[in-house]
Input
Amino acid sequence: MSDGSIDLRHEARARVYAEPVETLNPAQPELFAADAMWPIFERLRAEAPVHFTPESNYGPFWSVTRYNDIMAVDTNHQIFSSADGIALPTLEGKAEAAKRPQRPSFISMDPPRHDVQRKAVSPVVAPANLQRMGPIIRERAGAILDALPIGEEFDWVDLVSKELTAMTLATLFDFPFEQRRKLTHWSDVMTNGPGHGPVTSWEQKRAEIDECFGVFTGLWNDRVNAAEPAFDLISMLAHNPATREMDRLEYYGNVGLLIIGGNDTTRNTISGSIYALNKNPAQYDKLRADPSLIPSMVSETIRWQTPLAHMSRTVTQDYEFGGKLMREGDKVMMWYVSGNRDDSVIETPNDYIVDRARPRNHLSFGFGVHRCVGNRLAELQLTIIWEEILKRFPSVDLVREPQRTHSIFVKGYETLPVIIPRRT
Output
């Protein structure tokens, strides 16, 4: 397959290695949209694993690109704080955010506040509840797959990846099931800037987010005074003594976090698994021959895909790290997408291997107090959908290169054109 993005990848590699390492800037969404950011991270890991970019469209920031350095930052919340946000916004986005009250969520808090709010929603992803949800997810996955057209091109992102995650999110929130795709839409609104994704202006973005929080205000009001709390995320927050009186902006922040967190990892890994297996047909053959490899394949895809490319932290005091002096207030980017390709920790990291020896040895869920609360639910959905795919289809074939997300945060797919061949 050949298209403009492949040409850009070749151009990007040549440009990266002709440029002084000091001036490299990995925060370029157009490179992520073209899957052309890899040479920058390859060179930073080798020559400047702790690297400062003084000027960018996101302001100045440090990049940490090696696996063990990322883990060191992620597990030290005393020095590297989440309280000032976990994704690096553009300068325009910062200016826009300054016009409105901030909506903190527990992922943008440090302990002890973080621990209290996270604990309130954790029961929904406890092992007992995952066991209860398994048959529901399986039934829905089967219905989605059985409705797909055979022998005709269609968009896997739209008909499968978005649909399964929307169904699961609606169940977690006890959200009106027939309106479930609003959750996917709102996630895209929150994570994309104007002109990339569903909105074209900051005004439209504000209006769409206000609509979302208006709906969730209604759901809170319906459940906060219920005699018996239901087993859903909103009821858990509304009835837990530690969160029942939370500030309304904190509630909105947590709603946004749970919508995005429940959507992006699973959705983009479902799509990423189709892409990865098509790009590695010997691995696809191996998986079809031995479906017991599905859990390993799921973890390998989560590593290889890395659905969230980075997390950001703020330095709480002057601190030397990796031989560099970081100043209080500096932004630090943990590039998970780079650490997951670090060959000093992961053998042949650019290869996609469905029976890799240690497939869960990846950074995609983070580490420390902010390790992804829904990681087991994401793995469950991915395992089930692939168990059902292999029961039904000889293959799911990529028709042409996907359209990727224009973002340095969400590493995903806007479209993934595929065809399921008819059985002969």
